């Protein structure tokens, strides 16, 4: 199964290079076109004259990147941290990719080496001649949490050429059904589809992988654990009793620890709100009504908001993107809490939520959280489907606990109350709801207020969004549901089916 990973690198940028670099990145743009390439005439006047110029008619040919799902460059302008200290400008470069990191870096350099050198020449330091590989690797930043919406599927499996991708298979099957008499039975329909695929020349991608299965949380696993415990209770009752007492004591201690921790966080939240009000009074209101409330944001004006929304509202696109950066609240306790929550998100995203949904949200291709600037800021990248409003609405309705658990540790987040002494019971109830076919996970709330204060949360999110100057998707016309549906079609084409299963499979076409 191909491994999907996230690469993130950050490069310092001097103040005098911010505007020239911004101009070059804007010229490259969010290049999602049929050709998926950037012509030289768009950027040649913005390139440093001292560097080797990319040859030919193209500055960047994204379609030659065979390991890249998504790619972005984002310029993070100078800002202030939560204690009012300056944070210098930096350039963030991020990819979601297949396979080993070294092979991915080699492909980037081979495909777009001159373009990479031109862009990074505005950074401090610029890459030395012939040292681009080490330059990228030395600037790498590890993520705290990473989520994949369709794990185990390579770019070539999803959207490859040479007639071997699952999307091409779906199209071939569609042609097999079109323009022919209605088959008498479902079995006849499948037989005709198999013949059509054979005639189309479609072949399975060499990098094709099976969708990942949840490694924890299945009902059979819990039943097995229960059976083992029952067996021990029968065969070794005294040992089982001692273990049961120890488990109860451990649970009580855990409730005391988490309850005390939550109580302290609630007290800190009140202190932080008082401090933030003082900062806002001292810095003054935003320059216009739609500007950012947070005075630590690099650009509080309405102009930034308009740039961000314009980049999101491109006509005819299924996919969208978000770059979000916000200060972490001061104090070691806040940072430790944030790390614990992100560890839990990363664990759940890699073990439980591996079948196309983060919680109950089916629209996220890839997402990652990274602590940057010596852990003073939290950077969030997301590649998702459809509009910003629907995306935020899904988050609020279906994953408000996760949002609140992460971002309540950052500045100017909506007021949050942690039900400290009920966190563990609520968490246990939430775990049990995941085992029930009819259980409503979103009905169990770990936190109160926070992201559930919808209008405040949406305003806070906008306040901390950053324009994503360059954004590329390898398959811009496919949603997460499309990708996973095509995999189900490919897996089911030659698999044995019962009558009901066969009908369900045919409805996916």
Question: Could you characterize the architecture of this molecule?
Answer:
The chain has helices spanning 15-28, 40-43, 101-120, 132-138, 155-159, 166-177, 186-200, 219-235, 237-283, 302-312, 332-351, 388-407, 423-434, 454-463, 480-492, 499-506, and strands at residues 4-12, 37-39, 58-61, 68-76, 79-80, 86-87, 90-98, 145-148, 319-327, 364-372, 377-385, 416-417, 448-449, 470-473. With 509 residues, it is of the alpha+beta class. It has 2 domains: 4-152 and 252-473, no CATH class; 161-204 and 479-506, no CATH class. Strands 1-7-4-14 form a 4-stranded antiparallel β-sheet, with helices on one face. The chain has a 4-stranded antiparallel β-sheet with strand order 8-10-11-9. Helix 6 (166-177) packs across helix 15. The longest helix has 47 residues, at 237-283. It starts with a strand and ends with a helix.
**Count of domains:** 2
Poorly predicted regions: none
Radius of gyration: 25 Å
Strand percentage:
15-25%
Task: Characterize the main sheet.
Answer: 4 strands, antiparallel
Helix segment tally: 16
Mean pLDDT: 85
Distance between the termini: 24 Å
Structural class: alpha+beta
Name the helix and strand elements from N-terminus to C-terminus, one letter apiece: EHEHEEEEEHHEHHHHHHEHEEHEHEHEHH
Question: How is the topology of this model organized?
Answer:
Elements: E1 4-12, H1 15-28, E2 37-39, H2 40-43, E3 58-61, E4 68-76, E5 79-80, E6 86-87, E7 90-98, H3 101-120, H4 132-138, E8 145-148, H5 155-159, H6 166-177, H7 186-200, H8 219-235, H9 237-283, H10 302-312, E9 319-327, H11 332-351, E10 364-372, E11 377-385, H12 388-407, E12 416-417, H13 423-434, E13 448-449, H14 454-463, E14 470-473, H15 480-492, H16 499-506
Antiparallel strand pairs: 1-7, 2-3, 4-7, 4-14, 5-6, 8-10, 9-11, 10-11, 12-13
């Amino acid at each position: 199964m191909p491994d999907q990973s996230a690469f993130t690198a950050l490069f310092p940028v001097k103040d005098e290079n911010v505007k020239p670099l911004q101009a070059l990145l804007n010229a490259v743009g969010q290049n999602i076109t049929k050709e998926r390439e950037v012509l030289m005439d768009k950027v040649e006047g913005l390139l440093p004259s001292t560097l080797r110029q990319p040859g030919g008619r193209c500055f960047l040919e994204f379609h030659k990147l065979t390991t890249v799902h998504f790619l972005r460059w984002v310029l993070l302008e100078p800002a202030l941290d939560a204690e009012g200290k300056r944070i210098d400008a930096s350039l963030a470069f991020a990819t979601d990719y297949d396979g080993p990191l070294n092979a991915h870096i080699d492909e980037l350099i081979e495909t777009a080496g001159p373009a990479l050198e031109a862009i990074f020449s505005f950074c401090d330091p610029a890459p030395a001649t012939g040292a681009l590989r080490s330059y990228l690797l030395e600037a790498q930043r590890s993520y705290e949490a990473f989520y994949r919406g369709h794990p185990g599927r390579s770019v070539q499996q999803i959207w490859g050429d040479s007639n071997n991708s699952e999307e091409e298979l779906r199209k071939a099957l569609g042609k097999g059904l079109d323009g022919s008499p209605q088959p008498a039975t479902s079995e006849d329909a499948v037989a005709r589809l198999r013949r059509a695929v054979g005639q189309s020349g479609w072949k399975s991608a060499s990098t094709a992988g099976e969708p990942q299965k949840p490694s924890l949380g299945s009902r059979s696993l819990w039943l097995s654990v229960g059976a083992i415990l029952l067996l021990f209770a029968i065969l070794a009752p005294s040992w089982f009793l001692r273990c049961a007492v120890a488990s109860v004591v451990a649970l009580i201690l855990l409730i005391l620890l988490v309850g005390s921790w939550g109580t302290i966080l609630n007290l800190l939240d009140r202190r932080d709100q008082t401090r933030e009000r003082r900062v806002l009074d001292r810095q003054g209101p935003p320059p216009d009504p739609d500007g950012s409330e947070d005075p630590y944001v690099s650009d509080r004006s309405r102009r930034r908001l308009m740039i961000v929304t314009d980049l999101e509202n491109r006509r005819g696109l299924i996919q969208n993107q978000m770059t979000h950066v916000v200060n972490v609240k001061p104090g070691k306790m806040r940072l430790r809490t944030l790390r614990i929550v992100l560890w839990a998100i990363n664990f759940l995203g890699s073990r439980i939520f591996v079948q196309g949904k983060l919680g109950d949200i089916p629209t996220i291709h890839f997402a990652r959280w990274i602590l940057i600037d010596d852990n003073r800021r939290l950077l969030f990248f997301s590649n998702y489907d459809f509009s910003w409003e629907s995306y935020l609405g899904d988050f609020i309705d279906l994953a408000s606990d996760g949002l609140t658990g992460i971002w309540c540790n950052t500045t100017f987040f909506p007021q949050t109350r942690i039900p400290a002494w009920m966190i563990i019971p609520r968490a246990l109830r939430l775990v049990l709801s995941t085992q029930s076919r009819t259980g409503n996970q979103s009905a169990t709330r770990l936190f109160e207020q926070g992201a559930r204060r919808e209008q405040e949360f949406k305003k806070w999110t906008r306040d901390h969004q950053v324009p994503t100057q360059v954004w590329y998707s390898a398959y811009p016309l496919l949603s997460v549901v499309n990708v996973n549906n095509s995999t189900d079609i490919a897996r089911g084409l030659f698999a044995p089916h019962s009558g009901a299963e066969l009908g369900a499979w045919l409805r996916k076409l």
